Request: fold
Amino acid sequence: MLMLSLAVFTLVAVMGAGMGIDAFKGRGSPRLYALIHGGLALLGSILVILVALKGDTRLYVIIGLALIIIAAGLYISFQRAKGIQPRALILLHGGTAVTCYGLLAYYALRG
Reply:
């Protein structure tokens, strides 16, 4: 199930990178695209939580990082609804997501 989560988050990462590039070029991403990005991130997070509930305590740090990433993503979406592109927060969101993804990949691929 951890490999499935990694696959989902790979798609989320590609989508997020595209959205971040759009934001820094001064244009927004379609709302539906952002909703799909968030929905897939939620799915991946649920998969990680299910694995953690089965006893894999290594994943707790990933869950903690995910809470920060989700909070930042929600705040970004509220700001975008007001026509604001919070670039510093987008960098924080993306940087934390890259760290979280790296840890997830390490745990998923190293067993």
